[in-house]
Amino acid sequence: MKTFFSTLIMSFMTVSLLSAQVMEKQARKYAKTITDDDLTRHLTLLASDSLEGRETGKKGQKMAAEYIKNHFESLGLQAPVDGSYFQKFNLYQTYRGESEMVVNGKTIKNLNQMVYWANVPFEKNEIEIIYVNKAQEDDLKDIDAEGKFLAFKAEGQFTPVLKTLEEAGARGAIVFAEDSSRMNMVLRYGQYYATHGSLSRTEPSKNGLASVVIYKELAEDIFGKSLSELEIGETATANLYAEINTEVIETENVLGYLEGTEKKDELIVLTAHYDHVGIQDGKVYNGADDDASGTTAVMEIAEAFVKAKEAGHGPKRSILFMPVTGEEKGLLGSAHYAENPVFPLENTVTNLNIDMIGRVDSVHKDDREFVYLIGSNRISTELHEISEAMNENYTKLELDYTYNAEDHPDRIYYRSDHWNFAKNGVPIIFYFNGTHDDYHQHTDTVEKIEFDLLKKRTDLVFYTAWEIANREDRLIIDEVEEETEE
């Protein structure tokens, strides 16, 4: 009997080993379909001058979306958005027009001593202003904020304070910039928004919080005394007017769906943003590395998986290939998907996000075969271990976790499209080559892409996706901690 069970165990182990060997052989076979020639072809088109820098909502972005859609359609991927490859949504481009405050009979124009900060139109009217120091909890406890403008001193980021005041029922906010350097920075942003506008997924509402940032000297004019003499609850009045013009812009994520063979309801999502920053000062910002490189990788990985399935080799889980729009405008495309998922987020096993994998940064000039990984261990240790194992077995890149440090000042974890999955508890990996002198410059062009390195990094994403798509068990989530958006 003992001999029988020993033989049975050995048989199971042999079958398991053979199965793993077969899976590895298949993975290597289909990774070879990702070629330098195909990567070069896709990237060269996406980063060409003809696409005009792929700015969100503009002609070049639409052309890129059509190119990606045609590729997905040619592969036979399903169009999962009610029969379409496009998940369309509206963005709202707002331009700040004429704005002014009248203080004690003196008219202050926007971008002079004040900056009208909000995307909220405000009809010319008298406003009641209440001083609330730093607008902290203790400062607000005895304040009737309903319909009033609350004035506070800015320390650090003041935008979270604006949200607090809006939730308290305030009609608006007057922000005191206590030093000239802070106010000068706000003025620069204000000038940019006046010229270029700002883009949002939310249509501006007349009922939103109006907000004005002013020099402390103007604050003292409003209250008739120095800030050091002001006490919480003191009031003043002024007149305010702000004009906001809005343009509706339609844009789209591009989705190609490959249904799994066994675990169809479980989904892997591969993302990269295909937008860039357009044309500035007559120069095309091609965005070859940022992020035509990542978009090209997703397109090629999609083709590899399709070929595998056509040959009867999976994947067991479904895969959504999703180049997204609006990343450069604030992760808008991935945010829209996360709030309007075509497939339930609770069924999403992982998001593998690729944003810049075609170049080498200054840190790795002498050791170019690397990639930065961010977030792999934040939600699922098992995902991190799988990633490490795939690299050890197949690609043998240096996996650099510098930007994954929770205290890293660049806060990269919050700055690409994976964040909209991670904050919803989906395990993620973000693949990144670091910044370089051509980052967000018109010099980020195709001839600077290192295609052999792009191929190797793309392979790593493919092998990781292959393993997760075909393993028996879903990834284990360690413990989902509530993240704070920056």
Topology (SSEs and partners):
Elements (H helix, E strand, L loop, with lengths): L1 H30 L4 H11 L12 H17 L10 E18 L2 E4 L4 E3 L5 E10 L5 H4 L8 E5 L5 H9 L4 E6 L2 H17 L1 E3 L9 E6 H8 L11 E20 L1 E3 L4 E11 L5 E2 L2 E2 L3 H23 L6 E8 L7 H8 L8 E7 L15 E5 L6 H15 L2 E3 L18 H4 L5 E5 L18 H20 L16
Parallel strand pairs: 4-5, 5-6, 6-8, 11-14, 11-15, 15-18, 16-17
Antiparallel strand pairs: 1-2, 1-7, 1-9, 3-8, 4-9, 10-14, 12-13, 16-18
Helix pairs in contact: 2-8, 3-8, 8-12, 10-12
For the record, the count of structural domains works out to: 2
CATH class of the largest domain: Alpha Beta
Strand content: 15-25%
What ranges have pLDDT less than 50 throughout 5 or more consecutive residues?
A: 482-486
Identify the overall geometry.
Answer: elongated
Stated plainly, the CATH topology of the largest domain is called Aminopeptidase
**Arithmetic mean of pLDDT:** 93
Instruction: Give the % helix.
Output: 25-40%
Helix count from the secondary structure assignment: 12
Oligomer: single chain
- The string of secondary-structure elements, in order, is HHHEEEEHEHEHEEHEEEEEHEHEEHEHEH
| Terminal Cα span | 63 Å
Largest sheet properties: 9 strands, mixed
Q: CATH H level of the largest domain: which superfamily?
A: Zn peptidases
Number of strands: 18
Structural class: alpha/beta
What is the alpha-carbon Rg in Å? 26 Å
CATH architecture of the largest domain: 3-Layer(aba) Sandwich
